[in-house]
Amino acid sequence: MKVAVIGGTGKMGAGIARQLANGYDVIIGSRDPARAAQVARGMGARGAGYEDAARESDLAVLAIPYSSMGTAASLAKELAGKLVISVVNPLTLRGGLLHFALEGGSAAQQLAAMLPGSRVATAFNNVPARLLAGKVVPPMDILVAADTRETFEEAAKVVSSIPNLRPLHVGPLSEAEAVERITAVLANLAKLNGTKSLAARFVDG
Ligand SMILES: NC(=O)c1ccc[n+]([C@@H]2O[C@H](COP(=O)([O-])OP(=O)(O)OC[C@H]3O[C@@H](n4cnc5c(N)ncnc54)[C@H](OP(=O)(O)O)[C@@H]3O)[C@@H](O)[C@H]2O)c1
Question: Could you tell me the pTM of the whole model?
Answer without folding.
Answer: 0.98
